[in-house]
Amino acid sequence: MRDPYEVLGVPRSADEATIKKAYRKLAKQHHPDANKNDPRSKERFSEITSAYEIVGDKDKRRQFDAGEIGADGKPRFTGFEGFGGAGAGGGMGGGGFRQAGGRATDDILHDIFGDAFSNFASGSARGTRGSRRGGFSGFEGFSTGGAAGAGAASAKGADVMVTARVRLEDIVGSGKVRVTLPNGKTLDAKIPAGFEPGQQLRLKGQGGEGTPPGDAIAILVYEPHALFRPDGYNLRLDLPVTLDEAVLGGKVRVPTLEGAVDMTIPAGVTGSKAFRLRGKGLPDKGGVRGDIFVTPRIVLPDGADAGLEKLMERWREMRPYDVRGPEFSS
After folding, report:
1. How many domains does the chain fold into?
2. Which terminus of the chain has a smaller tally of CB atoms within 10 A, N or C?
3. Range of the domain at 30
4. Rounded to an integer, what distance in angstroms lies between the CA atom of residue 174 and that of residue 192?
């Protein structure tokens, strides 16, 4: 796996804010939902997220920088300190093993191999004396095939990654997002305060089977809305208005995430200016709501209208005006 700093395109000296900004930019750019025609986007997105799992976490970043874990997040094996065979240290003394850093090596191996090593060290199964005479031929009852028997520890379950779509209405309403796991299980999780797309939500123990089980990492994105477009913590809305409403003005009903409200539009709107509904947007980390910016869009009636056409013909003769300026004709 590539160096996580290289994957995110940041230097090793980058601060947390820089790393977070780089991740969100790349996650948004390479998210599979935004690249449905690119079969490699899923692989690239997974690599970006895995890299952020390392350098976006203070403890894991410290361990990676110190060489304690690799780019895959797994510990790096550096060998047993002071451990050597009989030829390296003058042989074994008495009936035991050499000391390593002030601790008997049989204790170290016991921690790793469990009871399988205890049987060997005690002489009950190809014990110390027997191994000296005939040579060591392995731990009795110990297998490298994965199902090692009574003393073997189970492996930790793998983490799994899923995408969860957050509904705008739920951000200001229930505060919950529905997460569907790879095994088909669904659960409702709390939406983080000040939610921004690309955030991760770790669900402890909801990943692959093991001891302990792995976690599920949900990448949160917006569920596309039929009316609203998120713009930071603000929302943008195109509001259809009739020709007479645009010319004469009046009260119109405007939808919000919590129900429609009345808004007065002035006479002579052209769609070049957005109107603000304060406090109807999305909440930031402190709970302060953004605004909804409403842009009127004039919609003409369907089909031909002889009366309207005659009115516009007279208007063109009596009140011609230029809305495009000279830069459009050069």
Report:
1. 4
2. C
3. 4-65
4. 12
